[in-house]
Amino acid sequence: MVNAPDLITRLARHRTLAAAPPGELAWLAAHGYLRKVERGEFVSRKAELLESLVIVLSGHFAIHVDRGAGPRKVMEWREGDVSGVLPYSRMTKPPGDAVMDEPGDVFLIHRDHFPEMIRECPTVTATLVHLMLDRARRFTSSDLHDEKMMSLGKLAAGLAHELNNPASAAARSARLLLDGLPDLEDTALALGAARLSGAQLMVVDRCRQACLSALPSALSPIERADREDALSAWLEGHGAHADAAAALVETAVTVTDLDALAATLDRSALNTTLRWMGAACSSRTLAGEVEKAATRIHTLVAAVKRFTYMDRTSVPEAIDLTISLSDSAALLLHKARTKSVGVTLDLAPTLPRVRAIGSDLNQVWTNLIDNALDAVGESGQVTIRAARQFDFVIVRIIDDGPGVPPEICERIFDPFFTTKPVGEGTGLGLDIARRLVRRNGGDIELESRPGRTEFRVTLPIASDNPNAA
To answer: How many whole angstroms from its chain centre is CA 260?
Structure first.
């Protein structure tokens, strides 16, 4: 035990404890011990129980937390700060290692003395409780930031893959379109030079209209091959190049249309017209593919913009859950495809809006859907349901995985608790999901058995919702 006057003097100069009465400082001095800590020494370790209140008299140390991307400093303490376990705190283990950067002195009071300290040192206790609340807010903010960054990293990886496919398709189709434009221009000039009569042009135009029309239904691979063989045979039989068949196969042009064309034009004009039609059809098909790919890219970018609320402030507003859930599911579809997992959206029509912070809800959906995708096996199933119940909307994320063991269910929302292998989970996703749901006036529950796990999120309907009545 240490009760030297110089220790009481140092405590009286301590920035955090200076306002405490001398009697309380004397009590502290009589119930703790001084420890000199060298550079590189651990003040506390992640795997060890926190046993003592740590009053920093000199030196500097910081706590580093690894969320999967390497250790990162999340908090630090210098002369005048207090660390370690605090009265009324539920923290039992630190989230990371606390290592001394500058050598110094720390004064430690074992947690066994806390009941007496609470009784004998009310001023010190009140100071430490306020300090605990500030520390909890700082850790919460850090945890939420890290979890958001990890979620965005996962989404970025999936988004890069999702964007790569339409971007590659657009680039490929645009290149082929540019390559085909000279042929279209040449055949258009040749058709003009043929000087067709008005009656012939009418027949050509009817065939062109059929060329511009798509087939009423998609062809199966066998049907497509049969149609292309029939068109190729007709073209070869009339002295035309069979390459045009590939361009005409997806259009509504029939052999009957081609027969009418052949009955009106001589062989030279027929061949020119068919070459022009093939080039025109091919160009329109490629332009359509560019538009389809660009639309897909636009849709994905719009989903990301809505998901991140990048142009909105973080304030509660009326949220359309149909859009929120659809966007979250869309941005995780790549992960589902890699495991051949089916993702089903079963959302009630005219789903009422809820009042919440949109980015908060998107973070919740991402965590829950991502966990469900991790839980199911190959060719598993994840179902996302939402429906109104009284004055609430209930969102259910259901998977057909092996389920959560009963002995774990009680701890599933605890911070830093994870069932995933080391390096694959931080144990913060569900803790943060619960914090965000509660911050928005809702609740989250788990119900699990083998073959069916359901996370149920209940959110209050927005009072200004037109469907709330």
So the answer is: 57
C-alpha–C-alpha distance, residues 400 and 453, integer Å:
7
The token pair that represents 346 in the structure block:
């079963």
Task: Give me the torsion for CA of 385, 388, 393, 397, rounded to 10°.
Answer: -10
Query: For residue 399, what are the contacts with CB-CB under 8 A and spacing of at least 6?
Result: 372, 373, 375, 376, 380, 381, 382, 383, 452, 453
Judge residue 309's burial from the number of C-beta atoms within 10 Å of its C-beta, 0-12 exposed, 13-18 middle, 19 or more buried.
Answer: middle
CA-closest candidate to residue 104, choices 167, 34, 1:
34
Pairing of strands 317-319, 97-102: unpaired
Kindly give, in sequence order, each residue whose CB lies less than 8 Å from that of residue 172, ignoring residues fewer than 6 positions away: none
Q: Which domains are delineated in the chain?
A: 5-120 (2.60.120.10), 156-301 (no CATH), 313-460 (3.30.565.10)
Model confidence pLDDT, tens digit, residues 160-204: 667 777 888 888 889 988 988 998 899 889 888 888 888 888 888
pTM, full prediction: 0.50
**Alpha carbons 84 and 110: distance in angstroms, whole number:** 10
Kindly tell me the number of DSSP H helices and DSSP E strands found in the chain. Answer: 14, 15
* Amino acid (one-letter) located at 35: R
Q: Say which residue the tokens 């003040």 belong to.
A: 43
pLDDT above 90 as % of the chain: 29
Q: Is 195 left (phi over 0), alpha (psi -120 to 50) or beta?
A: left
How close are the terminal C-alpha atoms of the chain, in Å?
67
What's the pLDDT at 143? Answer: 52
Q: Choose among 5, 13, 15, 30: nearest CA to 117.
A: 30
pLDDT tens for 359-383 read 888 889 988 998 899 899 999 999 9
| Contact indicator for 468, 361 with CB cutoff of 8 Å | no
